[in-house]
Amino acid sequence: MLEAGFGCSDGSSDLPSPPTALTEKRLHYRLYKMHHPMEANEPTTAVIQIAEPKEAEEGRAPSLLSRWAALNLQEGGPSQGGQPRMPQGCLLPLPSISGPEDVIVKVIYCGICHTDLHQVRNDFNASKYPMVPGHEVVGEVIEVGSAVTKFSVGDKVGVGCIIGSCSSCSSCQSNIEQYCTKKIWTYNDVYHDGKPTQGGFATTMVVNQKFVLHVPNNLPPEQVAPLLCAGITVYSPLKHFGLSQSGLRCGILGLGGVGHMGVKIAKAFGHHVTVISSSEKKKKEAMEHLGADAYLVSSDQAKMQEAADSLDYIIDTIPAVHPLEPYLSLLKVNGRIIMVGVIPGPLQFVTPMIMLGRRSISGSFIGSMEETEELLKFCADRGVSSTIEIVKMDYVNKAMERLEKNDVRYRFVIDVAGSNL
Amino acid sequence: MVQSQEEEHPRKAFGWAARDTSGVLSPFNFSRRTNGADDVTLKILYCGICHSDLHAVRNDWRNTVYPIVPGHEIIGAVTEVGTNVTDLKVGDITGVGCLVGACHTCESCEGDQENYCHRLILTYNSVDRDGTVTYGGYSDHIVVPRRYAVRVPQGLPLAAAAPLLCAGITVYSPMKHYAMTEPGRHLGVVGLGGLGHVAVKMAKAFGLKVTVISTSPAKEKEAIQGLGADDFLVSRDPEKMKASASTMDYIIDTVSAVHSLEPLLALLKLNGKLVMVGAPDKPLSLNTHPLLFGRKAIGGSMIGGMKETQEMMDFCCKHNITADVEVINMDYVNTAMDRLAKSDVKYRFVIDVANSLSN
Description:
Chain A is α/β, with parallel strands linked by helices and 421 residues long. Chain A has helices at residues 53-57, 114-120, 170-173, 221-224, 230-240, 257-268, 283-289, 301-306, 325-328, 352-355, 369-382, 396-404; strands at 3-4, 30-31, 47-51, 68-70, 90-91, 102-112, 137-144, 156-159, 162-164, 184-185, 204-208, 213-214, 249-253, 272-277, 294-297, 311-316, 331-339, 347-349, 360-363, 388-391, 411-415.
């Protein structure tokens, strides 16, 4: 039930007749145009707001039930390299209970992940528009389906990167459902019912209870958001690869959302942490605020040489193509570099760099629901917090631009509930 | 004044050496040290020709000091033991592989992984503790510290055992370290040469299911009937490769030419490991998506430590594992090198040194 309406250049709004097969009151929409002056260098995404028509007619601000969506505005579609145009709008169905195990979550906060940026820009050539990104969601349960046992209305909950899986494969059966080959992404995917999935840049979401997490009451909700993707992305491989005992020497490559969580979690495990960055400018922050033990600038050949063979593991968080050799040489014998950045392109390496020293290049992807709950408890117990910049929804495009330039300490978190959507 | 190779040590030695980048080998008079308190001296009986020997004589890695006497798959008989050596005696059949020294104080050495020591001394083309260049097994005798000799268990045919000292340990060590030995699991072996064929035999002895992955369909018969592999996959057949996606627990990649890793990673199951023991001399491309979304790993490995080399020899004796070899005389060595460059050997040349090396 998704229709895109483009091409109204005279300023009038598009009012198609309401869908008829629906009985839920929330499923009638009216389009509101969002003014967004487009200039030559504007990024090719914008956000629009759609709202519940009844309230709009009464002249009130749009209700709880609106969605913020990234639209691909290029004429003729992304592959034809068209020019950005002003958004004309689109219709999106609101979430509703579709199965007995569904939970409706009122979104309070949603983190902005670098992958959101890649997805809205179609960097993986797989983006479907309109797209509502966001997979670091903290919210409150406002409705539960008839078979929901894990949650009650009012519970503080979290939703991460996936909201569905097959339940029957060996990954699902062994509680590592993030590796299910039929997993369903929180946004830009297709749900079991054939409908597109839409994420947390929205006031509400409907999620199967299996993919909803309890958020401990003693964790500030805005800080929980980054744990649901950035945090678990670090925690899961440290547990899986047997790297959680204290005393290890850790390297964190890249100091963004995942990197800063890497520093905090590794410190909480009792590791000696070296931050490896492309510039000096984050050094003070890293050492004084995040608690890193050492800081290496990757272009400082002398210091890099000195640090050769000193690290048990490196978490490589860089979400872009970059050389591997300088970092492989920092690893001790049997050391492991764990790739966690989602990179739109191949890297390269020379085999002797891993043969000498018997080093490994591994990868890891988020963590399971079980591990994520364990992480939340771990953070609550050890006082591990995230360092965030809270923004309102109307700042989201600016935030995306700043994220692209790595200009954030260290995760933007959208105050969705406070954005008057 | 630089001493000549004949004068730098007290004892005369004779072998074949390459003198320039053509890599052509010819008779060479040189010298070796006397047997020290911790040393053993071996009269060399056989020496395998490793692909690394070919690279070294032709200066492919740009680090060859000429004249070079290659050879690091050595089988010999002990002719002298130092006063501190108590567990080997004259006449014992022993082997020497790729290493003849290390620092013995670093973490790697203390963990019996001398092969990862930063100050490791290779059997040839390396600088020994006394500052002289080491000479390898294409020669009449060699003197090594006892630590770098392994006993060849009785029952192993000697010429066929020689390649175990390099090819054998090069695949045995990562199979143990990366835990690729669980019976019933599925191993892929990429490349069917010196390393690959030994990997197949060892894997079968570990109780693994083995699939040989090769570019040449012609090797299927030998792989399955000759070596005992369970299956054969032509890597250039995209349909067959696709049908085998996510079926292997581990892969040992012995190929030393530049090749694509993505099709190999696709063959691995979740948590699968791809271990590289061949060393292409140019960078390989790596798309990290399979590593993330399948939690897969690429690991490297380089020969093995001395303790595990002995363990490997004993394992091979127990399971009757030796290399498939073509025994040649010393004067055939240049032809053998040319054939090796074309991969025209099943699967290792071994020089019958004792019977064919003459002054």
